[in-house]
Specification:
The two termini are about 20 Å apart. The protein is globular, with a radius of gyration of 16 Å. About 0% of the residues have low confidence. The strands form three sheets. The protein has a seven-stranded mixed beta sheet with strand order 5-4-1-6-8-7-9, with helices on both faces. A hairpin with a 2-residue loop joins strand 7 and strand 8. It has seven helices and eleven strands. The relative contact order is 0.18. By secondary structure, the protein is α/β, with parallel strands linked by helices.
């Protein structure tokens, strides 16, 4: 992707969840092949975007090793991924005004497609269209391309109590982009495989060991 296109999109790493199924704490900081899982995700997404930011609540110092700004939710009470989308939009509007969109990814998905942003961006006809990633016929609501121009509407809806991603996207023109499964060491896996539990983290470690560059 050429730099001009990249600069139209800010990457937002959604790390604001409570990680209950992982036993609490920051699951994205768990070790995966010798480094935090978040490091793998940054390596895959950073070449695809202009600016990049981490959305997380609490002490930002725990992410200091990554050298990225950490922005908390602007809506109180752990309002879910839409709050992270809004926080990313607000940060991008201030710090990367040339970006018309943000692309959000979950920070427990270490095999993200290397053409994620490019394919999402190619699918939108204008700067008010949302694009969501899908694989195997399943939509992944937290992995998508979001117009910064919709920030005020999202803010209003969150304050009105909307929490489910698809309830909000239904208000706007949204396209779904299907991504093919990956082949890793003879196995076929979902490119959006996420390590939500200790067992899934162990599976990710096994897949990472077998992955070719």
């Amino acid at each position: 992707m050429v730099d001009r296109a990249k600069n139209r999109v800010t990457g937002v790493l959604l790390a604001g969840g409570l990680s209950r199924r992982m036993g609490g704490g920051d699951k994205c900081l768990r070790d995966l092949a010798g480094k935090p899982m978040l490091a793998h995700i940054i390596e895959r997404l950073q070449p695809q975007v202009g600016a990049m930011v981490i959305n997380a609540n609490g002490d930002p110092a725990r992410f200091a090793q990554f050298g990225l700004d950490v922005v908390p939710d602007t809506i109180e009470g752990f309002a879910g991924p839409l709050a992270g989308v809004l926080a990313g939009m607000r940060w991008s509007a201030t710090h990367a005004p040339e970006a018309c969109w943000i692309v959000t990814v979950s920070t427990d998905a270490p095999f993200l497609p290397l053409d994620l942003t490019e394919r999402l961006l190619a699918s939108v006809p204008d700067e008010r269209t949302i694009a969501l990633a899908a694989s195997g016929g399943d939509v992944h609501p937290v992995i998508g391309l979001w117009p910064v121009a919709l920030a005020d509407d999202l803010d209003e809806q969150l304050k009105a109590g909307v929490r489910k991603v698809l309830h909000w996207t239904d208000r706007h023109f949204t396209v779904v982009v299907e991504f093919p499964f990956l082949q890793l060491h003879g196995r076929i896996i979902d490119p959006f495989f996420n390590a939500n539990t200790p067992e899934e983290l162990e599976e990710a470690r096994a897949l990472m060991e077998s992955r070719s560059p």
